[in-house]
Write a structure and sequence with these properties.
By secondary structure, this protein is α/β, with parallel strands linked by helices. Helix content is about 40%, strand content about 15%. It has 13 helices and ten strands. It is globular. The mean pLDDT is about 95. Bound molecules: pyridoxal-5'-phosphate (PLP). Pyridoxal-5'-phosphate (PLP) binds near residues 197 and 318.
Length: about 375
């Protein structure tokens, strides 16, 4: 059984079918930037897919830059904005619980002379907006925050954060890698950049997007080479991956309400049936029902817990972190010993009620 949908999801069969049509097409193999007829047909399709993506996300006037995934989108947004706007200031604000794609990118910017403030989060993983307000300085140019947290499942109030940034004249990047299918996509008009990833919503790995809400705002390109994508990201455009990503978003949004009702039910079942000695990590009220993050009591047998993780494809934290501890769990106050007893569970399209009942029984058995 698989309960690690926040780390990746299987490609939806309709998405595979859509991509295969592109891969076997006698037209869509061509290069959308080629000046001939086949190239123009690909360009027309590319423009249609880009508009479809923007419309699906409710931002028809924005600009999209297609990337290889959210990691690249985050690199482009943070380094691109920092290098574009460094004359206005060199201070950037983020939080200790951000994904390594953000933290590592910002530490590389620190080596280039930028100064980064890493704010703490509240014990439930939510951010303190008043603290953000106090931390903005006259040289602050950029804030970066995750919408739906990949480990804790917290959903931040992006509109309030983005409004504050706008009022204080600061750009804001939102990491939306986990947003699609896990929370409503109400992109605040005050957001500057938003990063997305296809493989978190039943699309293929290897494609993502950076949404630039103000289509005319300059951003320094980070992937150098050709002049593709309005000179924002060099490299030949992979039409089949983009088509697969757009199809996966269409499917995710079309089935959103039904899927969320299913996940709400699973999450409530966990709250009701899990042994009371098991604690929850992260907020209980402002979280996506896709994610359950638990801390087992100190009496749990760690060897049996490791077996359970193997059997149900569970993790204690993000897959991109090879270390035994998680900077996220540390930031919410979990000691390294406690982190050994933490479990991140996430639901997806293939999760059934039977799977959840079996998992909950298996977890409860460990504390019986
Ligand atoms: C919140 C968050 N940001 C960024 C990423 C990186 O996304 P990708 O795998 O598309 O590079 C992930 C993936 O784990 C994520 O969960």
């Amino acid at each position: 059984m698989y309960f690690d949908y926040m780390s990746s999801t299987p490609v939806h069969p309709d998405v595979s079918k859509c991509m295969l049509e592109y891969l076997s097409s006698p037209i869509y193999f061509a290069n959308p930037d080629s000046p001939h007829g086949l190239g123009s047909s690909c360009r027309v399709r590319f423009d249609e897919l880009s508009s479809q993506f923007l419309t699906l996300l409710g931002a028809p006037d924005a600009q999209v830059v297609w990337t290889s995934g959210a990691t690249e989108s985050i690199n482009l947004a943070l380094k691109g904005a920092a290098k574009q706007y460094h004359r206005a200031g060199k201070h950037i604000i983020t939080w200790k619980t951000e994904h390594s794609a953000t933290l590592d990118t910002l530490s590389s910017l620190e080596k280039d002379g930028f100064s980064v403030t890493m704010l703490p989060v509240l014990p439930d993983g939510m951010i303190d907006i008043a603290l953000l307000d106090q931390s903005i300085r006259s040289d602050t140019i950029l804030v970066s925050i995750t919408h739906v947290h990949n480990e804790l499942g917290c959903i931040q109030d992006i509109d309030a954060i983005a409004r504050l940034c706008y009022a204080r004249g600061v750009l804001i990047h939102v990491d939306c890698a986990q947003t699609l299918g896990k929370a409503p996509v109400n992109l605040s008009p005050f957001i500057t950049y938003a990063s997305f990833s296809a493989h978190k919503c039943n699309g293929p790995k290897g494609v993502g997007a950076l949404l630039m809400l103000d289509a005319n705002r300059p951003l320094q390109k980070q992937m150098h080479g050709g002049l593709q994508q309005n000179n924002k990201r060099a490299g030949t455009i992979p039409l089949f991956l983009i088509a697969g990503f757009v199809r996966s978003i269409e499917l995710t949004l079309a089935h959103y309400s039904a899927q969320m009702a299913k996940y709400e039910h699973f999450s409530s079942y966990c709250k009701e049936k899990l042994h009371p000695s098991i604690l929850w990590n992260g907020t209980v009220s402002q979280r996506t029902p896709v994610n359950v993050n638990l801390m087992m009591p100190s009496s749990v047998d760690l060897a049996r817990l490791d077996d359970l993780k193997q059997q149900y494809s569970l993790s204690s934290h993000a897959a991109c972190n090879p270390y035994a501890t998680s900077h996220v769990l540390t930031a919410i106050g979990r000691s390294s010993d406690e982190q050994k007893r933490c479990l991140r569970i996430s639901f997806g399209l293939q999760t059934t009620e039977d799977c959840v009942v079996t998992l909950v029984d298996a977890i409860n058995d460990l504390v019986a």
